[in-house]
Amino acid sequence: MKSITINGSQRESVGKVATKALRNAGKVPCVLYGGDNPLHFSAEELSFSKLVYTPNAHTVVIALEDGSTHNAILQDIQFHPVSDKILHIDFYRLFEDKEITMDIPVSITGKAPGVMAGGVLRLNKRKLKVKALPKNLPDYIKADISGLEIGNKLYVTALQNDNYKLLHPDNTVVCQVRISRAAMKAAQEAAKAEKEAGKKK
């Protein structure tokens, strides 16, 4: 999985006054959990744009001023209800021998015969919850739709992989090909016309 480096400074003071001063300076207060003690640090708000405003999943390398680096994933993020500015971010430390849970985007591949026949592809799950060791986390989960006819569904069981575990019930639908409204309306009108023609005979 691709990684993004965040350059940060460790925070000594974590009170409300210090936190407000950080935000006023264009920085985001952050906490790294998962170690012996939570690590408080801050980083420029702009440095989070590639991590937050993207559909892709990334791991994070937190590089602090003292030269230390910490591998992590984004766990939680708080936005201001009006301005949408980032108020606070929680990270969770990665350990090579410990499995973690993460939402991974679904990538559609192939062409569905049902779509070419006039159906509409509906993506029910844009992301799937995955459990894996950090080294086995995929950038995305490939969903091959080349076998889907109109009315067919692609279930999560078709996307299982030895490197990671999908944390969804087996009957979870990832995507499906449905008949389009136009095709449905045409079929209804054809059936109605046929019925009326039958009455006239």
UniProtKB/TrEMBL annotation:
Entry GO MF terms: 5S rRNA binding; structural constituent of ribosome
Alphabetized InterPro entries for the sequence: Rbsml_bL25/Gln-tRNA_synth_N (IPR020056), Ribosomal_bL25/Gln-tRNA_synth (IPR011035), Ribosomal_bL25_b-dom (IPR020057), Ribosomal_bL25_C (IPR037121), Ribosomal_bL25_long (IPR001021), Ribosomal_L25_dom (IPR029751), Ribosomal_uL5_bac-type (IPR020930)
Record keywords: Ribonucleoprotein, Ribosomal protein, RNA-binding, rRNA-binding
Keyword presence, Electron transport: no
Keyword Ribosomal protein in record: yes
GO CC, alphabetical: cytosolic large ribosomal subunit
Coiled-coil parts of chain: none
Domain (Large ribosomal subunit protein bL25 beta): residue spans on this chain: 99-179
Domain Large ribosomal subunit protein bL25 L25: 6-91
GO biological process, one term: translation
PANTHER family: RIBOSOMAL PROTEIN L25/GLN-TRNA SYNTHETASE, ANTI-CODON-BINDING DOMAIN-CONTAINING PROTEIN, RIBOSOMAL PROTEIN L25_GLN-TRNA SYNTHETASE, ANTI-CODON-BINDING DOMAIN-CONTAINING PROTEIN
Subunit-level organization: Part of the 50S ribosomal subunit; part of the 5S rRNA/L5/L18/L25 subcomplex. Contacts the 5S rRNA. Binds to the 5S rRNA independently of L5 and L18.
Family in the record: Belongs to the bacterial ribosomal protein bL25 family. CTC subfamily.
Its biological purpose: This is one of the proteins that binds to the 5S RNA in the ribosome where it forms part of the central protuberance.
Name the record gives this protein: Large ribosomal subunit protein bL25
Naturally occurring in which organism (per UniProt): Kordia periserrulae
